[in-house]
């Protein structure tokens, strides 16, 4: 009679080495799928005339601004304004508490 009804009595528990081998195989499988996916995306981009982001032949690549850069600049400006208003409010509260 098995001690656990969910475990087959003939199954032996996994060792650390077995687990590591499974994890390494899963990682290799993932790397292979990812490599194939990237290759397919590049082929698709070449066929449909979409320039690749890492295409060294693109002369204006250095002049392009990525949307992430714009978002970071906008977020930086907002953060600077938030800091300014917080400092101003702290000074106002300090002035009210000190002079009353």
Q: How would you portray this structure in words?
A:
This protein is mainly α and 100 residues long. The chain has two helices and no strands. The termini are far apart. 0% of the residues are buried. The mean pLDDT is 83.
- SSE series: HH
Q: What is the gyration radius calculated from CA atoms? A: 29 Å
The biggest sheet amounts to:
none
Number of extended strands: 0
Mean pLDDT: 83
Low confidence ranges: none
Key terms for this structure?
100 residues, mainly alpha
Blueprint of the fold:
Elements: H1 16-48, H2 67-99
Short description:
It contains two helices and no strands. The protein has 100 residues and is an all-alpha fold.
């Amino acid at each position: 009679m098995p001690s656990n009804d969910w475990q087959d009595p003939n199954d032996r528990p996994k060792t650390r080495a077995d687990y590591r081998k499974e994890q390494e195989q899963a990682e290799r499988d993932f790397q292979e799928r990812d490599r194939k996916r990237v290759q397919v995306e590049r082929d698709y981009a070449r066929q449909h005339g979409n320039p690749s982001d890492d295409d060294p032949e693109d002369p204006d690549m250095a002049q392009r601004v990525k949307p992430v850069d714009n978002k970071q600049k906008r977020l930086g400006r907002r953060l600077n304004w938030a800091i300014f208003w917080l400092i101003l409010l702290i000074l106002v509260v300090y002035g009210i508490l000190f002079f009353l």
